[in-house]
Amino acid sequence: MKIENNYLTEVFTTKNSKKNLVHGLVKLAYADNQVDKTEIQIVQEIALQIGFGQEIPSQQEVKEIKILFDNRVQEICFFKEAIRLAIVDENYSDSEREFLKSLSASFGWSKEDFSKLEEEQENLHWFKHTQTIELD
């Protein structure tokens, strides 16, 4: 599975921002206690792409880590990738959604701003999904 997220290397340039991107995505993958193999593959590919390495921390290792980015652009990019990750298994669970809402609130985001970004990403996913369906 090849993912096209070339912009990530331009946005996440510091060691700390790369670590937080990967750790945030791992925390999300574990949020619903149903880690899909595809979710882990995507996190591994993103980690490799940004030069973080392929080893993914365990749920216990990331449990108490506070996710914090350097700027709003990193936060937006993180949430875009996180929402894509959450819906890759066609099941954006309540626990995944609550984790992301809580994290956005800790960054000072309004509920409306997060909801707009979330809706945009979900619509994009379903639009791309319908592009792959062949009709007779």
Between the first and last Cα atoms, what is the distance in angstroms?
A: 27 Å
Please count the beta strands (DSSP E, at least 2 residues each).
0
Helix-and-strand structural type: mainly alpha
User: Topology as H/E string?
Assistant: HHHHHHH
- Individual helix count: 7
User: What number is the mean pLDDT?
Assistant: 85
Largest sheet: none
User: How big is the Rg?
Assistant: 15 Å
Indicate the low-confidence ranges by residue numbers: 129-133
Principal-axes geometry comes out as: globular
Q: What fraction strand?
A: under 5%
Helix content: 55-70%
Verbal overview:
This protein has 136 residues and is mainly alpha-helical. The protein is built from seven helices and no strands.
